[in-house]
TrEMBL record:
Name assigned to this protein: PD-(D/E)XK nuclease family protein
Organism: Alicyclobacillus mali (ex Roth et al. 2021)
Keyword DNA-binding: yes
Pfam families given in the database record: PDDEXK_1 (PF12705)
Location of the PD-(D/E)XK endonuclease-like domain: 4-279
Amino acid sequence: METLTYSRISTRARCAMREHLHYELRLRPRQIQWSLDIGSSFHAAMETWNQGQSEEEAVAAALARLNEVAARIKDPVELEKLPLRSVQLEVMVRAAIRRFPKYEPVVVEHEFSVPIINPRTGRASRTFRLAGKIDLVVKTPDGGYWLTEYKTTSQNLEQFRMRYGLDSQVSYYTLAAREALGIPIEGSLIRVIVKTRTEPRRGETLDEYRDRLEAMYTQESDRLLAEDLVVRDEAQLELTRRELWAEVQTRLFEKRLGVIRRNPQACSDFGGCPFRAACLQLENWQDMYYVAKAQHDELSMETQTA
Ligand code: SF4
C-alpha cells in the first residue's frame, strides 16, 4: 500500500517529475532555501509551544532546526546570512506566541492513515491511503472544532487570504481529520505571520536590529499577523473526495503507461525548481543533492517543509 500525503499530492500537482525526484528517489537539494527553511523552523517552534512548552523553549526549537539545516550549507556567502535569518526567525516566533490566544487543545500531534474511497462504489483503494500528521485540533470558545495551521508568507495578508476558498490543504486535512478522529471538524484556524523584508541598517548591530523588528511586529501586529477561520462544508468535502479518487486513478493510469510527466510551466515557480539540475541531469548533478532517509518529510523529524 502506498502512502499519499498532502505534500506529495501538491508536489505532483505542480510537476510529476518533481514528485518522482523528491518522493521516489528521495533527493533533497543541498542548497539552502531560506524561505522554506525559515517556514519549517517556525513550524517546529509552534509545535513545541503547542506541546505546552515555554516561549524560550519554542525559540530554541526554531533555532535548533535552522542550525540543523545550515549545517549542510557549503557556500560561505549563504552561511554569512545565518545570524540575520536567526534573528528574524526568533522575532517571528516571539510575535506569534504573544499574539495568538491558546484555545482548548483537543488533539495534539496525531498521525493518521485513512482509506481513499471510490465515491461511486464506497470501496477503498487497494493501492493508496491518505496519510499525514495533524499538529493540533482546538475547541474555540463557541464550541467549534478546528484544525490549527501555522503559515509564514512573503505576501501581504490580503493577498494571502485569496487562497482560502480553494486551499486544498484545508480541504484534504478537514476530510482526513473527520475520518481519522471522528470529530465534526469545521475547517482550519489559520495563523499566519508575514515574513519581514526589513534588513539591518548600515552600522546597526544584530541586537539593535532585533529590538527594531520586535517593535515593528508589536506596533504593526494587525498588518503582520492574523488568525482566520476557513470553513469547509459538506459540499466542498464531497468535491474533495471526488478529486482524491481522480488523483489515485490518474496515478495508476500513468504508472501503467510508464510515463513521468514533466511540467515546464512550473520550472520557474517560487524562485525556480530546486530539482532542475537532477531533472536535466546536468554535469555533477549528484553533488547538488543528498538522499533523505525518509520518503515523507512531514512524517519524520529529519526535515520539514513549510
Ligand atoms: S525542472 Fe521543471 S520539469 Fe523538471 S522537475 Fe522541476 S518543475 Fe518539473
